[in-house]
Design brief:
- The chain is α/β, with parallel strands linked by helices.
- The chain contains 8 helices and 11 strands.
- Strands 4-5-6-7-9-8 form a 6-stranded mixed sheet, with helices on one face. Strands 3-2-1-10-11 form a 5-stranded mixed sheet.
- Helix 2 packs parallel to helix 3.
- The longest helix is centred in the middle third of the chain and has 19 residues.
């Protein structure tokens, strides 16, 4: 099934309904990041032996990511009943989009392999933008490249009476080169939160790449979360709108916690290279009329030559 593309800030999910039609599941994953294992030399940290400035970077490979992503596809395709959709929460590709023509050539090859792998997925795949997808400091050029490849980088959709909001978290991390785009997303988000607050849908949830926090809302700022007071401002805004779950990636480990005991933030480890003690995997999310539950599932048959 082709990877879905959002247009005009909306995404049409095949076979879905605006109305609640009963319990269902979906798949949340993150950081398939084709190419990261070679760049990190399997170490889980950049700049070891290979890296982006290696003279042989144009010949880098992503054999392990292909195996890991293919395992995910095969496992999801065996599920019965089928999930309504799968969503990849950012860092889809590893090659930076802003470093120059060589890196863009590598990126285009990674993109082609990503599309080749996930066209075999039997459920619709939704893509979320991560920092590697537009750069740590997005520019007009990197945003346009992402949109050309994947469609809109923020949008909403409805799945069987559940309202889903997708945002580009990089505009909150570092918008200095694209302040107008960041402001446009923020205004749009306020309108989406009004819809969430209206009570029209059974549940409302948010999908993004960078988590607002890793374990507790008052934890210190690190690379993998957001600064205060922005963090508290956004969490308070989401909670007030009745958002029940925020699904994230970026950390390459499982983490998460609660805000005011009402809104849960879930950090899902990577389909791709791990940076902690977790194994490659994805999350199965089960949605009922009154509750949303989730379980991390490890990939099968991936022990040959990698984590």
């Amino acid at each position: 099934m082709p990877v879905l593309r959002a247009e005009n800030r909306t995404l049409q999910l095949p076979g879905s309904s605006e109305e609640w039609t009963g319990d269902f599941t979906f798949i949340q994953a993150a950081d398939c990041q084709l190419g990261m294992e070679w760049t990190c030399d399997g170490s889980g940290g950049y700049g070891q032996n290979n890296g982006y400035d290696n003279p042989d970077y144009e010949n880098s490979i992503w054999y392990h990511e292909i195996r890991w992503c293919s395992s995910m596809v095969n496992m999801i395709n065996k599920m019965e009943p089928k999930p309504k959709f799968a969503i990849m929460c950012g860092d889809i590709l590893d090659a930076w989009p802003h470093k120059g023509e060589l890196w863009l050539r590598v990126r285009d090859k990674q993109y082609a392999d990503f599309q080749k792998i996930f066209k075999d997925l039997d459920v619709p795949l939704v893509c979320v933008c991560g920092n590697h997808d537009v750069g740590n400091s997005p520019t007009q050029q990197t945003v346009q490249k992402y949109r050309s490849d994947f469609g809109d980088d923020w949008f909403s959709f409805v799945c069987n009476g559940v309202f889903c909001i997708v945002i580009n978290s990089q505009y909150y991390e570092d918008p200095k080169f694209v302040p107008e785009i960041a402001a446009e997303q923020d205004s749009w988000l306020d309108e989406q939160l009004k819809i969430a607050k209206s009570g029209k849908y059974k549940h409302s949830m948010i999908f993004q790449h960078i988590p607002w926090f890793l374990k507790t809302p008052d934890e210190p700022k690190v690379y993998y979360n957001f600064l205060q007071p922005l963090r508290e401002t956004m969490l308070s805004k989401f909670a007030d709108a009745g958002i029940s779950k925020i699904f994230c990636g970026h950390y390459h480990r499982n983490a998460g916690g609660w805000y005011n005991e009402k809104m849960e933030l879930i950090v899902t480890s990577a389909v791709g290279l791990q940076q902690g003690e977790d194994r490659n995997g994805y999350r199965v999310v089960s949605v009922s009329e009154k509750d949303i539950k989730h379980e991390y599932v490890e990939l099968e048959n991936i022990d040959e030559g990698g984590s």
